[in-house]
């Protein structure tokens, strides 16, 4: 069983939903999850906010933060994960868990952010956690590692949380 399989199984068993906000991974995290049969029961949707302006308009990341810190920042990742929960609300209820990726896959640095700097975040009602990663490899390798890191972060969060009653 892959981590994606385990995530879908755990979410289904607990009656939880998930939403994904992606930048550098360009939809690859959500693609990894929808590869699993039954994902449609728990995956609310995904926002690929590749353009920095979409991080504000779709995910609620303040434009001032993006202007001051740039899109590759731990606070941006956290707000993306929190914002996608709201963006994927259904029936007046946000998604139970939001996961987000932002970073630089290359080939060039983005402002002060070097190639390989990636932030992944997970948010739920208990709070938000961000991991900073310094990845190596070419563009495809960095993106694949970022997907793995996002999946791992959700797996870890589910392992530490209690089932929904």
Describe the structure using short key phrases.
165 residues; alpha/beta; globular
What does this structure look like?
By secondary structure, the protein is an alpha/beta fold. The protein has six helices and five strands; from the N terminus they run H-E-H-E-H-H-H-E-E-E-H. The chain has helices at 3-14, 28-34, 52-57, 63-69, 74-87, 139-160; strands at 18-22, 43-48, 97-103, 117-124, 127-134. A five-stranded mixed beta sheet has the order 2-1-3-4-5, with helices on both faces. Helix 1 (3-14) packs parallel to helix 6. The radius of gyration is 15 Å and the shape is globular. The protein starts with a helix and ends in a 5-residue tail after the last helix. The relative contact order is 0.18.
In short:
The protein is 41% helix and 21% strand. It contains six helices and five strands. It is globular.
What secondary-structure arrangement, pairings included, does this model have?
Blueprint: H1 3-14, E1 18-22, H2 28-34, E2 43-48, H3 52-57, H4 63-69, H5 74-87, E3 97-103, E4 117-124, E5 127-134, H6 139-160
Parallel strand pairs: 1-2, 1-3
Antiparallel strand pairs: 3-4, 4-5
Helix pairs in contact: 1-6
Instruction: Please tally the β strands and state the result.
Output: 5
| Annotation field: number of helices | 6
What string, H for helix and E for strand, traces the elements in order? Answer: HEHEHHHEEEH
- Helix/strand/pairing category: alpha/beta
Task: Tell me the major beta sheet.
Answer: 5 strands, mixed
Strand content: 15-25%
Tell me the distance between the termini.
Answer: 25 Å
Portion in helices: 40-55%
The gross shape turns out to be: globular
Q: Please give the radius of gyration in angstroms.
A: 15 Å
Largest sheet, spatial ordering of strands = 2-1-3-4-5
Average residue-wise pLDDT:
96
List segments where confidence is low: pLDDT < 50 over at least 5 consecutive residues: none
